[in-house]
Amino acid sequence: MFDVTNDRDGGRTPRRWNPLARAARCGEALHAWRTRRHGHAPPAHDTGGAPPSPEPAAVESVLWRMRTTVRDEPGALAALCTALAERRVDILSLQTHPLGAHTVDEFLLRVPAGTDLTAAVAAGGGTDTWAERADAHDLVDGPTRMLALAARTATDAAELPLALRQLLGRCTIRSQPATAFGAGPSAVPPEGILEDTVIRLRDPEGGVLTVERPYLPFTPTEFARARALVELDARLGPRMPGGRDVLPLSEGGHVSVRRADTADLDAARDMHERCSAETLRRRYHGPVGDASRYLNHLLSPRFGRTLAAQTASGDIVALGHLLWDGDETEVALIVEDAWQRRGIGAELLSRLVGMAVEAGCAHVYAVTQASNTGMVAAMRGLGLPLDYQIEEGTLVITARLDAASAAGTPTPDQRVFRH
């Protein structure tokens, strides 16, 4: 077998093929290719036998939600992100809200402890900056969070105020008659009204839903999402989770505990008729004859949640209310005289507090008379830190729920709505 080479005279001279020489040439070519391919790697003598440099120590970081305004022009957002990156701030999510000549940018950030976030944003061109501490719940992306809120609203009409509050942050939500803003429902158009820090929407139950957040203007995106939740509530109509629990009583027998709403209005009025004047006075702090006037409001899912204790014959013998009062949350109880001191009130109160914990409330308060030893004992029985305020015989007892959250107080799904 022969190889062929060119001689100096341009002719072709046959040469016997040497497989060992050919292998040597191939090895040299492979070595040259590898040298060119991996030329970016440092030479072995650069590192010597020294161990690799240790990783920098982990720095404690905290989550922040931040909103700031930048000019709507090329490079403005990049300058802001660069300023954050220089301080090792990690951008976990970003939403932009174009508003004419400016854009409102909303961030979820992981910030090294001790970082001056306000100075960093100002250096990047951000103005009108607002920030608050975030938690792990804020790591859920926007569409997923919105779907979860819609699912909660679809299950229970009482969830709408809570869903709006979780969507929009700290805000005050009120349901008011439309006549407060003009003549009839036409005072608020079907598409609603957005006025800087105020949103007004038609309440599916009649009247107007007003949402206020004085510390931070609403964006058009937030307005559109809030309107979508209210429209969903209107389309689905009245609804309430079914199911009930059997509650054994301390002196024998049992009652069932379930959710109640305005469909139970007649049964609740009948219970009022069986209650003594003293029981009604302790509960409503006013003329006994006016007690039943409050029931339609108290039983409405728009203003909170109600639990009813019911006998096997269908009589309601106790009601417990968890009422959304702006940024506050009130609890209230009434137990028919013949069923008092049997543990019903304490059980309803415990379940209402569980609902408040599940809804993310910071505290609940009860307004009663200083002489109402039953309500005082029930609040003490919660085992939570309590604050007391007394003025002219009226006692306000506030329970802080951070201890209940840490202790894992059962939620409504665990304790009330089992089928």
From TrEMBL:
Residues 255-402 form the N-acetyltransferase domain. Residues 65-136 form the ACT domain. Pfam families: Acetyltransf_1, ACT. SUPFAM superfamilies: ACT-like, Acyl-CoA N-acyltransferases (Nat). CDD domains: NAT_SF (cd04301). It comes from the Bacteria. InterPro entries: ACT-like_dom_sf, ACT_dom, Acyl_CoA_acyltransferase, GNAT_dom. This is GCN5 family acetyltransferase. The lineage of its organism: Bacteria, Bacillati, Actinomycetota, Actinomycetes, Kitasatosporales.
